[in-house]
Amino acid sequence: MKKQADFQYRYHAYDFDMIWFTIQTQKLSDFGIQFKVTPYTNMIAIPSSPTKPQIGFTLKKGEWDKIKDKGIQ
């Protein structure tokens, strides 16, 4: 589609990693977009369906690789 529409894009490098996931919850009535900003991380929660918010948070660059290397335990 990008080729057919002849879209132009620019790649931006950032000094952080952004992690996105969804979780199953109870009904999300009255759940709006939520933000949390701290000196260590930023978080956003977006209601993407009636029972599954999409969550995103930032980590220092390379921190996600360290977490994955430790494993789920």
Task: Provide an overview of this structure.
There is one protein chain. With 73 residues, the protein is α+β, with helices and mostly antiparallel strands. The protein has one domain. It has helices at 2-5, 63-70; strands spanning 16-22, 34-37, 42-47, 53-60. A four-stranded antiparallel beta sheet has the order 1-4-3-2, with no helix packed on it. A hairpin with a 4-residue loop joins strand 2 and strand 3. The protein starts with a helix and ends with a helix.
Descriptive tags:
4 strands; 2 helices; 73 residues; alpha+beta
Helix/strand layout:
Blueprint: H1 2-5, E1 16-22, E2 34-37, E3 42-47, E4 53-60, H2 63-70
Distance between the termini: 41 Å
Order of helices and strands: HEEEEH
Overall 3D shape:
extended
Q: Can you count the beta strands? A: 4
The pLDDT mean sits at 84
The total of helices stands at 2
Q: Helical amount among residues, as a percent range?
A: 10-25%
Oligomerization: single chain
- Beta-strand content estimate: 25-35%
- What structural class do you assign from the helix and strand content? alpha+beta
Q: State the low-pLDDT regions, or none.
A: none
Number of structural domains: 1
Q: Strand order, biggest sheet?
A: 1-4-3-2
Provide a short characterization of the protein structure.
A hairpin with a 4-residue loop joins strand 2 and strand 3.
